[in-house]
Each structure stands twice: as C-alpha cells, then as structure tokens.
Amino acid sequence: MEPLPAPSPTSVRITGDHYQWLIAWEGCLALLRENAARSENPVASVGVELDGAGNLDDVVLMRRTPPHTYTQVKYTVDSSTPVNEEYLTKPSKDGGPSILKKIAKAWRKLTADGMPVDLALFTNRAPDPADPLVAVRDSRSQFLMPKAGLQGPRSALGAARTRWAAAVDLTEDQLRKLLSVLRFDLARDQTHVQDRLQLLMAVAGLRHDEQAVTSGAGWVAKQVREGHRTLTLDMVKAAVETLGLKAGPARAVLSIATLKPDPLAGDADYAIDWIDRFDGSSDFTKRRPLPPAAWTQLQTDIEAAPARLPLGSTAISITGSTRLAPAFLTGTAFRMVTGADLAVLQRGQLWSTSDPYNAPQHPTVHQHPLDQGDELAVAIAVATDPTEDVLDYLREQLVPVSELLVLTPPGGAKDGSVPDTAAANALAIGIRDIVRRATRTTPRIHLFLAGPMGLALLLGHRWNRLRPTVVYEDVRTAQGYEAAFTVQA
User: Is it true that the peptide bond before 292 is cis, omega within 30 degrees of 0?
Assistant: First the structure.
C-alpha cells in the first residue's frame, strides 16, 4: 500500500475544524438527551467559539446552574508530539503564550467571581508516559489530580509542578486548583470520536449511522458560518427534524461495566463500574466477581438502578459490557410490568423491548430427564448449544431438578440465529411462554443462558409470572457454571 501524501495546510485546517464540529455535535446530543431524560442539571445551550471564554471557547456546555464546561479542542495530523510538559508550556511559534498559560488565564477570568467551572483539553494527541505529571493522569476521571499534588518538591513530580507553575505564572497552590478542574481528554482520534457519537446518537433516539454523524457535524459548521455561536435546545430539535435524524425516544442511560470501560459511563445518568471487581486480566477472562466482591453485591447494585435514574425515566438505554447473567438481571430490574422500555446496541442495531414483532416465536424444546428432584433446569441455546456442559454440571452438583429443557430457535443454535430486534422480542416471548407452561407446579427454575447479550436483557424484561429463578454464569472453570443471582419472578 502506497503511503498517503503529507496533508496540505488547508487540509489540516479543514480536518481540524471538522474535529471541532464533531465535539460540538456531541454537546448538542447531551443537550437533547439530558433535557428529555429530565436530568438534575441538564445542558441548557451549547456555545461554539463563544465570546468571553478565552481559549477555552471552542465548545462550551452551559448548564442550568454552574459549573459550565469550557473545552479547548486541539487536532493534529500525526503523533509526533505527545501531550507533555514541553507541549503544554512551550510558547507558540510566534512567541505568544503557551497552551497551558492561555488555559490558566481563561481559568482566572472565568473563576474571578468565585463561580465553579469544569475545564477540558480535548485532543487526539496521546499522553506522554514519560512525563512525570501527565503520567499520573487518571484515565477514568481524566484529571491529573490528586496524584499530581502528591510528593515533595525534591521529587520528580514536585520539580515538574514547580516548573509548570512558573511557566504559567501561578503559585503551586493555584496550579493544584487549576489541575483539579482541568480534564485532559487525550488520544481521542477522529474514528474514536465518530464511534462514540454513534453510540450517543443511538441513546438520544436518533439515527446512528456514519451519515447521520456527518449530518450533525455539518449542521454545526453551518451554524458557525452563519454567525450562530449559541445553539439552543429548540435549534437542535429543529435540526433533528430537518435532517431526518429522529428514530425513537431519547433515553436515560444506565451504564453497567463488568468487563471493560464503557465509553459512555461519563454521560450516563447512573453508572455501575465493576471492572476492577471482576476476576481476570482481560474482558474475555472476566467471568466472576473477585473476592471479597460477590454476586449478591452486584445484584444489589443492579436492582438499585431504577431508583438512581432521573425521576420518571421509562425509556432507558443500557450501555457497557456485561455477561449474560447480569444482562438478564438488568432486564428483571426493569420488568415490563413497570412500564420501562429498555434498549441496547447489539451488533450495531438498537434492540428495544418496545419494538414490534409479528407473533411470538416458540422455540424448539429438547427434554433431558434427570430425576434428581422436583425443580426444573432450563438452558437457552441460541448462539451455541451448551447441553452437555449443563448436564455435566447438574449431575456433578446434584442440582435437585427433574429434567433439563433446552430451548433453541427453530433453526437451531448458531451465530446469527436472532437477526434483529423483532426476532429477539418474538423469541423472548416464546421462551417465556414455554417456561411458564412447564413450571406451573415447579418450585424453582435453574436458568442457563447461551446467546446474545441483548436477548438476555429482553428475556429478563419479560420474566414475570414465573417461579423463583436461579441464574447461572459460565465461569470457564473445572466446575463450568456458577450460581450468580436468584430472581423472584
């Protein structure tokens, strides 16, 4: 493959502007969603190159009450210069103030009356791991503090603090205060920004294809060219209609992350972060809580989620990364009888519990007698067939069940057997109806899941008028499975 030619100055400028319009469109999505979800302190307007904010004027989120968010957006075409002391404190090419010195000046101006602020440097440049202060940045909060404030003046960290403070005409105490409100949102390449925008557009109830993202950013650019530097809720709503972006309701966001960080956690109305509380070094190996954390604690957190969302939230997007048992439990926490409408992105499609379907799809039923008790085991075999593994577990653990029912889609267990949201809802209802009939005299159900995460969520949402259910997780140990949750159904 031939290397791409070096970009021209005009190309760099146009790409940098488009990058800024993407970030501004993200602010517009926050404006839409937070007001629709009745967030406690929603974005009231979005400023683009707003007067009075110094060099933190690129994108400004004005909230109903402070702190407002002031962002400087910096784009680069290559990775030759990471974010470090030199990049932040070096004077500009024409001898003007450095990036950090401009930020410090804007911070002093914005906080002169004691008003709290939220500041951000947003860039596709990567952090320099060799820089003493940048290296202690918390990737979750994006702040250098509190670690940047630790250690004495003779340490590498302390010496760097002294240099930064001197370079921007602040005392070290002032520098600590600035770094306590300045987020370093780094390594946000354009592809990452566009992917994140597609997720945000989905939870805002909009079309979330690439063209939809381009349309939103293009609308922002048009407003700036026409001199509109403050974008209001009415303006954004009108743009959504004009651009044909509306696809469904704007949703409250519940983030549940047990495997890897959720890119929408910071935008969520409520976030459950269990990544460090699951055993394993990667999202593939994280399958069970790491003691002393326990399944019962995760169940408590998930079942508390409805009360943590904005009052009156009924349309809810589930984001993050979970295995099947937590996904099923999340569905039961927002069961259909509560009036909730849950949605989750599944292979790029938005699967919603309120999406229409023609008729319930009744699964094929395979019976395996066990005669170990009067309870019933049920295995949902959609993506793969776990029959032998489940039977081995039930026998080895002497689970008191009379038989194992294995339920598969009519075409059998295989990848892609549930192609879309209509098929998922139809199958979830068909599974529930079969289990209802099979458990009329059964005291308890033992449930094993092997299918798409979205189907587990939709099935849990409709799991009512059933017996108490023990939900198992495949933990990939010699034991095979582990009882995760007990759901009263």
Answer: yes
Given a cut of 70, is residue 249 above it in pLDDT?
yes
The single-letter DSSP state of residue 91 is: P
Q: How far apart are CA 127 and CA 125, in angstroms?
A: 7
> For residue 435, which of 407, 471, 401 has the smallest C-alpha distance?
407
> Which residues have a Cβ under 8 Å from the Cβ of 53 and sit 6 or more positions away?
47, 60, 70, 106, 110
- Per-residue pLDDT tens digits for 355-410: 999 999 999 999 999 999 999 999 999 999 999 999 999 999 999 999 999 999 99
Taking the model in full, what pTM does it have? Answer: 0.83
Separation in Å, CA 172 to CA 153, 180, 401, 451: 10, 12, 67, 55
Distance in angstroms (rounded) separating the CA atoms of residues 256 and 456: 14
Asked if residues 181 and 117 have their Cβ atoms less than 8 Å apart, the reply is yes
The runs of H, that is alpha helices, within 204-303 are 210-225, 233-242, 295-303
CB 282 within 8 Å of CB 297? no
SS3 397: coil
Contacts of 41 (CB under 8 A, 6+ apart): 63, 64, 65
Helix (DSSP H) and strand (DSSP E) numbers for the chain: 14, 19
Q: How many CA atoms lie within 13 A of 113 on its CB side?
A: 4
Which percentage of the chain shows pLDDT scores above 90? 83
3-state helix, strand, coil split of the chain in percent (to 5) is: 35, 20, 40
Strands 469-474 and 401-408: unpaired
Cα(92)–Cα(98) distance, rounded to whole angstroms? Answer: 6
Cα Rg of the chain, angstroms: 26
Encoded tokens for 401: 């069940």
Q: What is the pLDDT of residues 3-57, one digit of tens each?
A: 655 566 666 678 889 999 999 999 999 999 889 878 889 999 999 999 988 889 9
- Residues facing residue 329 across a β-bridge: none
Which residue in this structure is represented by tokens 């770094």?
179
Location of structure tokens 């784009």: 75
Q: Which amino acid is at 133?
A: L
